[in-house]
C-alpha cells in the first residue's frame, strides 16, 4: 500500500455545552486563513441549525473536508456538545476522505484523546492505511482514480438536465465558466462529483470550486482566477442569501 502523502493536516474543533467554539487541536499546523474559512464553513456556531455531517470545499490550491459529529453521554468527551474533524489535503476525493474522517471521528468519540487520532493519521500518512478494532478500517488504495470515477453518476446528471447536458459538456470542452446554484448544499456537493466525469480526458478538478460564499476573501480568490481564463473557469456556487446570482 502506498502512503497517503496528499494529506496535509488534521484538526479538531469543539463546541462545548456553553456554545463556545474552540479550535482545540491541529497536526502539524494550519494557517490563520485556513482556520477562518473552516470555522465559517463548519457552522458549529449556529444555535438552531445542525451542521452538515460531511462537507468539502477548496482553499487556494488545497482541499479541506469537514466531518461533524454529535457527542452523546456514552462518549469520552465531557462538556463537549459537538465537534468537527477537519482534514486538509492536496487532492479532491470526497468519498475517500469521508471514510477516513469518519474512522478518526469515531476514535475521538471513544477515547477523547487527540493522541489516538495522531497515531491513526501518521499510520495513514506513512502506510496508506489504519485499522481499529471497533471504529472501522481505512485503506487508501481502495479509493484510487478508477474507484472515484465509478462512484460518479453521469446517468443521473443527464436525467436531471436532459438536453441541457449538451450545453454543460460544451462549456467544459471550451473551458467556459459554469455557475451552479442550488438551495441544498448536500445536493450541490453530490452533483459536483459528477461534473468532472463528463470530461475525463481533462483535469476539470483543477478548475473546480465546489462551495463559494459571498465573502471578501473568497470573492478576491475568484477575481484572481479571472486573470487567466484558460486555467480556472469552472466555478460552483452555493449561496441562498443573494438572489442576484
TrEMBL record:
Which keywords does this Swiss-Prot/TrEMBL entry list?
Endosome, Guanine-nucleotide releasing factor
Q: Name one GO cellular component term.
A: late endosome
What Pfam families has UniProt attached to this entry? Avl9
Which Gene Ontology molecular-function terms are recorded? guanyl-nucleotide exchange factor activity; small GTPase binding
Location in the cell reads: Late endosome
Q: Where is the UDENN domain?
A: 1-245
What GO biological process term is on the record, naming one? protein transport
User: To which protein family does this belong?
Assistant: Belongs to the DENND10 family.
Q: What is this protein called?
A: UDENN domain-containing protein
